[in-house]
Inverse folding.
């Protein structure tokens, strides 16, 4: 066998080994987290509040806070991301303003999340006077998430064939009517899938929340749903520790004797929820695609 | 003009304006981030009168020691070196592996790569950084302590955690740039009798080098800015490490730990804001570098 052939064989082996290593790392990560965590998870763990000193606490309020914060963030972010995506895909010409918008999007995308958290501390927590609050956390998360949503929206809209727009315009529809009635519905599958992936990303975010939504939760009264009451879970101006922040805090500075149990369980719950978002996006895009193409 | 046509026109203008305003909001937000973090971050120099050279190159760290005991000193070199050491080493480990996997996905086994590796990488990218930190803390740190040496909390632990975390970024950007190459180049090389490895090494990788380099810089940017996963495994000791088994501290972990415990307006607190300004400027620098690389690659 010539040396070139031998080198080729060796290289091929190296490529397979690299791919195998990455799969092995992922398998190790997931199996470690799930193996240790799943036996901790039960109804009590998922619903009861954490305890500060004694063993036996749960992660109920943290799960609620994470989902509530996700909703608030998407309520702020989704319309803005969609509209900005519409501008970039449908209206923007290649000029300096568009260049500046794109540079800004790239800059925001690359911001370390701890830096976003500090910006949030400065502006959303201190300058507004809200203190550590869900609203400050939601605004910080929005800042992280917005560039991603804009990109998702722009890509989904650009994927719509130009013929559809031309047909609609030729029938006498205005530009906005075309966007609203023709382009957006055809881009819908891409938009939804992208939004779910974005949800998974912000659900696990912690660094930006330490100093915006805070590292503590007040005692919540889950029978009180009046959003302006300080004990109400819905109050957007109360501090709220999310699941991801709780994992960090328990590992870093907790005093409870069963740190390992809570950390294992909380990490497994977080991974399961993020995996669920990931699979949901995958499944939904396949389902919608099949419905649209009738195959 | 009829009422209906007027309403239509109004909607047209309203739609455009909303879209344009949302897009311009992105610019405003970016400017706001630079303005607020910039003005707050400069307080160390303007209010406390620290010299920029002391901040960047000093090695003494006594932010709360009074004047009569020789303080205060706010040399951030250990933090800056720690950040550079951990993130550059993580890239040195993660980048070759990431590029190998990207080549595998595009050239060696495209169907297999599409079906199994692509979803695997998406899951890897979706795992939250606290989970990486938690696995590093509860699996990797004890492993290093028991089988390799030292206390476990170390440069090595931080490097491994970061190398895994930046893999998805490096793989997906590298794979995109390899996919964008014209197929004729590969076909020409193969038809001249090159083996697959020769084609990859001598034609495809050099042709995609701008994209690959951009992928590596993007990975470096991610590693440099990562806070919690790193903070959980590196031990956070304010000394310049002598071996990869020694603990280390980074800019991000110092900010994470001390921001909550220092009084607003104190020198210590202001220095933390300056560190975050430094992080912001570094991340912007990485973006400009990537733009430069991509533009340079497009010209050739």
């Amino acid at each position: 066998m010539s040396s070139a052939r031998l080198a080729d064989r060796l290289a091929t082996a190296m490529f397979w080994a690299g791919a195998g290593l990455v799969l092995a790392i992922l398998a190790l990560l997931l199996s470690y987290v799930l193996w240790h965590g799943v036996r901790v998870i039960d109804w009590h763990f998922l619903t009861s509040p954490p305890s500060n000193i004694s063993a036996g606490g749960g992660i109920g309020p943290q799960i609620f806070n994470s989902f509530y914060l996700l909703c608030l963030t998407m309520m702020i972010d989704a319309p803005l991301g969609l509209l900005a995506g519409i501008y970039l895909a449908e209206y923007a010409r290649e000029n300096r303003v568009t260049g500046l918008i794109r540079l800004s999007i790239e800059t925001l995308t690359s911001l370390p999340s701890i830096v976003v958290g500090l910006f949030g501390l400065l502006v959303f927590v201190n300058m507004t006077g809200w203190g550590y609050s869900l609203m400050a956390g939601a605004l910080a998360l929005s800042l992280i998430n917005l560039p991603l949503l804009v990109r998702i929206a722009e890509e989904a809209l650009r994927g719509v064939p130009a013929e559809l727009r031309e047909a609609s315009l030729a029938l006498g529809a205005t530009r906005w009517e075309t966007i609203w009635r023709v382009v957006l519905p055809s881009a819908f599958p891409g938009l939804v899938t992208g939004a779910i992936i974005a949800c998974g990303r912000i659900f696990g975010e912690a660094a930006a929340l330490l100093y915006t939504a805070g590292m503590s939760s007040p005692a919540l009264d889950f029978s009180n749903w009046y959003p302006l009451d300080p004990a109400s879970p819905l109050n957007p101006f109360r501090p709220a520790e999310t699941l991801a922040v709780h994992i960090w805090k328990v590992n870093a500075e907790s005093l409870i004797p069963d740190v390992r149990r809570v950390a294992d369980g909380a990490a497994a719950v977080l991974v399961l929820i993020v995996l669920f978002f990931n699979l949901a996006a995958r499944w939904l895009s396949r389902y919608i695609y099949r419905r649209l193409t009738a195959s | 003009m009829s009422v209906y046509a007027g309403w239509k026109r109004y909607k047209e203008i309203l739609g455009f304006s909303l879209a344009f305003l949302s897009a311009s909001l992105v610019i405003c937000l970016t400017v706001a981030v630079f303005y607020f973090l910039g003005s707050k971050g400069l307080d160390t120099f303007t209010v406390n009168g620290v010299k920029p050279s002391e901040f960047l190159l000093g090695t003494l760290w006594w932010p709360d020691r009074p004047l009569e005991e020789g303080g205060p000193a706010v040399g951030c070199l250990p933090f800056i070196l720690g950040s550079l050491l951990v993130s550059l080493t993580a890239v040195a480990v993660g980048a070759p592996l990431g590029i190998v996997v990207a080549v595998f996905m595009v050239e060696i086994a495209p169907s297999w790569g599409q079906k199994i590796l692509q979803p695997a990488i998406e899951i890897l990218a979706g795992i939250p950084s606290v989970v990486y930190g938690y696995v590093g803390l509860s699996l990797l740190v004890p492993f290093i302590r028991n089988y390799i040496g030292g206390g476990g909390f170390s440069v090595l632990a931080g490097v491994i955690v970061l190398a895994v975390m930046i893999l998805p970024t490096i793989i997906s950007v590298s794979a995109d740039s390899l996919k964008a190459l014209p197929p004729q180049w590969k076909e020409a090389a193969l038809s001249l009798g090159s083996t697959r490895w020769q084609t990859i090494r001598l034609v495809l990788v050099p042709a995609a080098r701008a994209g690959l380099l951009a992928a590596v810089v993007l990975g470096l940017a991610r590693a440099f800015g990562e806070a919690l996963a790193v903070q959980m495994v590196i031990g956070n000791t304010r000394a310049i490490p002598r071996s990869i088994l020694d603990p280390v501290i980074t800019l991000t972990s110092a900010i994470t730990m001390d921001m909550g415990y220092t009084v607003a307006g104190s020198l210590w607190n202001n220095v933390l804001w300056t560190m975050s300004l430094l992080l912001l400027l570094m991340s912007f620098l990485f973006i400009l570098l990537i733009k430069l690389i991509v533009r340079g690659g497009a010209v050739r």
